[in-house]
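Why do we bother with holo predictions? Because pocket geometry can differ from the apo form. Keep that in mind while you read this record for zinc ion.
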Amino acid sequence: MTTCDYGERVMLYDLIIGVNMRRVDNIQVFRRNHYYLLFDKKSKKSFTLGEKEYVFWESLDGRDVNEIKSSYSDYEKRELMSVFNKIGLLNNHTGHRKIEGRYKKAIWCPEFFLDKNIWITKIYWWIMIVGFVAIIPIFFLCDYNQMRRIITEYVSVKTGVVGVVFVIIALSFHELSHALIAKKSGAVVPEIGIMINFILPCAYTTVCDYGNIKTLEKKIWVALAGIGGNILLIAVGGYIFLFANNENIKFFCIEFIFANIIPIFGNINFFYRDDAYVIIESLLGIRGLKERAKKYLITNLKNCKTQKYKDENYLTKLVLIIYAVGAYINELLFPFIILFLLLSTYVRI
Ligand SMILES: [Zn+2]
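The structure, written out:
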């Protein structure tokens, strides 16, 4: 899941630029309750614009700005244009419109379909909850010795290829699960598509307006939904494993379960900007936690009396320092942990 900033809010800057500006294309506009959400399909960024600001931006089609009738004064119009230019909503050469979706190809905008069929998301939420509960008995009922025996007997290049397909399915379902719960929670899902993840093709979901989801609980559910989807698939694979008579089928069930464990482990390290990070960020209520924590630690190490963060309370400061230290340790140690795991499996085989 990629959360699209928190919707960059347009503010006035003290900059004057020329007239005759044209708005960029490839912007998808979503009408929300009190504002407009603009999603840039190229840069994958989202922007929140008020009604008046949106109407003005919409009218920027290359004609002389002075001709545009709006409730803004000429000065305000220019100020707004400078902001639009700065954040990449105007078509010129100075605005930053970094293309982020280079390895991403959007295929479907689920927003309007799911908006009309919101019941699908509600039903899916309940299925996911069932998955959380249903997985528990599997741990007790599984014959782990039998599992180990089947793995050693059936593992081969051929079954390995099937494993790769299962990983793609697991990652795609993970993303779809985010999309469904995000829609249920009131966020905007402008696109589902295909991207290259390391070397594997898999699905991705862009969730916009995450910051405007009303309750903390709903925010956490959106971030948790990907893992929830994988747990659901593990439960399905687990029960087929338990009741299947054929060892071939049992082996593919084990593969399917492992394929679904990969995205779960890939998302639980909250020092990386994945699902667990979004959860921690929401729980602590600190936006841009990673940058802020690192910056805070560095400025503190350089200068003991920091003026900038004077207003933060003691607890926030402590959390920032702990997180920053953890993040640095994680960055230093993580490659070694992976290397260790790889070596230990290699040696065992
Ligand atoms: Zn995820």
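Confidence is low (pLDDT under 50) at residues 5-18.
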